[in-house]
Design goal:
By secondary structure, the protein is an alpha/beta fold.
């Protein structure tokens, strides 16, 4: 059978003041019906540019060369009117941000009906019935009613389901999914991936999956193309790429990913440096400046994508190719990421050998509550309900340890952090920082205490003032606390060196730095006043996996050198397993499980924790194919109207298996945290340890 999509020697070039931007350079692949091709690589590697070129969505100023054939029909050179008859019918797209992709002033049903009526000869009533069928297919509850709702009335996961329904409405030949789960919680991500599989099976479509999550690739890809500096540097089956990588860049990408199923205190391998600009690329391999194996041969000419001779390996649907002059050497020596990208040494903590119970308690929350009134009315305001964002939680952090705080969006993690950082009297309960009760602090004491607890934010660009150079950004807290100029200058350069930045960077502005470097600037500013506690709010979620590893290693090293204590919030449970000593799992304002990180991950007892861990994909195709995933139904209930009794029971897979007496207990009695092992507590009436890795 001929491929449904054939891309040959695709080049996409944009004009710029600096010169031609060669965004895609010589990409070729074939995609058969029902197959999934994953495009992976760091930001700027050309993945999304490729998808837009296939869809014909680039501006007229872009120069697109090569060939893109859909079932033998050439797409390049078609007019926009001609492509509009193909887009949405034969090729559809699921975008990264569904809220931006949906029209806010039209109902969900109207938008699906529009996609159907434009491409098919059906009446609006027929199209409306089909729209309801599609919403039901992708798991939207009560589809007839929800079809009349607007996009803002849906959660992120539900909006992405709507996008998938629109994408499959006309039985397309190809679905392009561009980072379809990046902005979603892990539980919602699992739901969306299941819906994508179902949609692909329903339509028989081929899929191009663009993602930075190698775990998603392992569980959903058939073929993989690894891109770097606009061109493919390795191609092959998913097993070839994960188990027999031959390009150092691929090996490095796979090695930098923390594994959910592995516990390790070692530093992660790091891809040093950043991808090159694709304007006026120098001769040689673009990866050479970052490659530990690079020599003079690598700088002479850019290596071509060569077919690999792999004795004893069954030929795959996509032959294994790599662009590297060191392929034979890598294969002969069986080099892995540990050989090519040896991890650095993390400074051991001075508290590592001290039992937790003997360490000083630097942060304690006892029965802390934060409720928000739900108000209605423009002139005569009245309270109509209460949002229980944080509901009587207990949590503590000891000297030199990292406590991870995980849970879906809306579970109360950020509200908990804000209550701590406010250093004020909570609505209920007590918060103690370094032994001081925040409710009893004077203004002067609060100011002094603020030096000892600092925060690193999720978005490093939004957290710093773009109008200030790096020196002023780091110096700002020092000036606020009365440091003199000579000491400030000395301290700023100390901090730049501490976080791995050059002193010459001090005069640059934030926009001149990569995402990882900007996060290092944020960390330097947080460390300026020598704090003892760092609050880390999703500090690596906005970074590429290669950059993420460097920031994780930096945080671990700083903790060892400075004796810091971390409260680390993250959606990525694999990152938490790598960095944390203990982990607390939150759901609708409650902590439902807490304990030593390996105990909680290896034998989770609360059904919610089991579902969270189960939802995280593991970058190992064999493991992913054999895992039984627990997919939660529905979205997080409103904290303004949570279920009675156990708040999780409306989504709990265990609840459905209980007898009526046990279900009544769950519905009427809220469970409390009880011991289920040494330093391991959980809040479930019928919880039991289950391995989900």
């Amino acid at each position: 059978m001929s491929p449904i999509l054939s891309v040959k020697d695709l080049h996409v070039t944009f004009p710029s003041e600096a010169g031609p931007v060669q965004a895609v350079r010589g990409l070729s692949f074939n995609l058969d019906r029902g197959e999934t091709m994953a495009l992976v690589g760091e930001s700027g590697s050309g993945k999304s540019v490729t998808s837009l070129a296939i869809m014909g969505l680039h501006p007229d100023t872009a120069r697109i060369e090569g060939s893109v054939q859909l079932d033998g029909e050439e797409l390049l050179g078609k007019t926009d009117d001609q492509m509009s008859k193909i887009r949405g019918k034969r090729i559809s797209m699921v975008f990264q941000d569904p809220l931006s992709a949906l029209t806010p002033v039209y109902t969900i049903g109207d938008q699906i009906v529009e996609a159907l009526v434009i491409h098919q000869s059906m009446s609006k009533p027929e199209a409306w019935d089909r729209a309801i069928e599609l919403l039901n297919l992708v798991g939207i509850p009560d589809p007839a009613t929800r079809a009349k709702a607007f996009p803002f009335e849906f959660s992120g996961g539900m909006r992405q389901r709507v996008m998938i329904a629109m994408a499959i409405a006309n039985q397309p030949d190809i679905i392009i999914a561009d980072e379809p789960t990046t902005a979603l919680d892990v539980t919602i991500q699992a739901q969306v991936l299941e819906v994508l599989k179902k949609a692909q099976a329903e339509t028989g479509a081929a899929m191009i999956l663009i993602t930075h999550d190698l775990g998603v690739v392992a569980g959903n890809g058939d073929k993989v193309t690894v891109m770097y500096a606009g061109r493919p540097v390795e191609q092959g089956s998913v097993d070839d790429i994960f188990y027999r990588p031959r390009m150092p860049y691929t090996i490095g990408l796979l090695g930098t990913v923390p594994r959910l199923d592995h516990s390790s205190d070692e530093a992660l391998p790091v891809l040093e440096g950043t991808p090159p600009s694709v304007v006026n690329l120098p001769p040689g391999c673009p990866f050479a400046p970052r490659c530990p194996l690079a020599d003079e041969a690598c700088l002479e000419a850019e290596p071509s994508l060569e077919l690999l001779d792999e004795p004893g390996v069954e030929p795959a649907a996509l032959p294994h190719r790599a662009a590297c002059v060191k392929v034979d050497q890598i294969e002969k020596n069986h080099w892995t990421h540990r050989d090519i990208f040896p991890a650095g040494v993390i400074q051991a903590s001075q508290y590592a050998d001290i039992p937790r119970e003997d360490r000083q308690q630097v942060l304690e929350l006892h029965q802390v509550r934060k409720y928000f009134p739900l108000m209605k009315g423009a002139i005569y305001r009245r309270q109509t309900g209460t949002i229980k964002a944080v509901d009587d939680i207990d949590l503590d952090v000891r000297r030199g340890e990292t406590v991870g705080l995980v849970g879906e969006s809306g579970s109360g993690k950020s509200t908990t952090l804000l209550e701590i950082l406010e250093l004020a009297k909570p609505q209920s309960g007590t918060i103690s920082v370094l032994g001081q009760d925040t409710s009893a602090l004077s203004r002067h004491e609060r100011r002094d205490l603020r030096q000892h607890i600092q925060v690193v934010f999720q978005d490093p660009m939004a957290a710093v003032d773009p109008r200030l150079p790096v020196f002023d950004i780091i110096a700002e807290p020092l000036e606020a606390f009365g440091w003199n100029k000579p000491d400030i200058e000395k301290r700023v350069f100390e901090l730049l060196d501490l976080v791995g930045l050059e002193p010459s960077h001090a005069d640059r502005y934030p926009q001149h730095f990569s995402g990882g470097q900007r996060q290092r600037i944020g960390i330097a500013r947080a460390l300026a006043l020598s704090p003892e506690i760092l609050i880390l709010d999703e500090p690596v979620s906005a970074l590429d996996v290669s950059i993420q590893a460097g920031v994780i290693n930096l945080l671990a090293d700083l903790q060892g050198k400075l004796g810091l204590s971390y409260l680390f919030v993250a959606h990525d449970l694999a990152v938490i397993r790598h960095v944390a000593d203990r982990v607390a799992v939150m759901y609708l304002g409650d902590i439902v499980e807490i304990g030593q990180v390996d105990q909680v991950y290896d034998a989770p007892t609360h059904p919610y924790t089991q579902a969270l861990i189960s939802a995280i994909p593991i970058p190992d195709p064999h493991v992913e194919r054999s895992r039984q995933r627990i997919v939660l139904e529905g979205d997080l209930p409103s904290p303004a109207n949570p279920p009675s009794g156990c708040k999780f029971r409306s989504r709990c897979p265990k609840f459905a298996t209980l007898d009526s007496v046990s279900q009544t207990k769950c519905a009427e009695q809220a469970p409390v945290l009880t011991s289920c092992g040494t330093d391991h507590l959980m809040a479930c009436h019928f919880g039991e340890a289950v391995s989900v890795l």
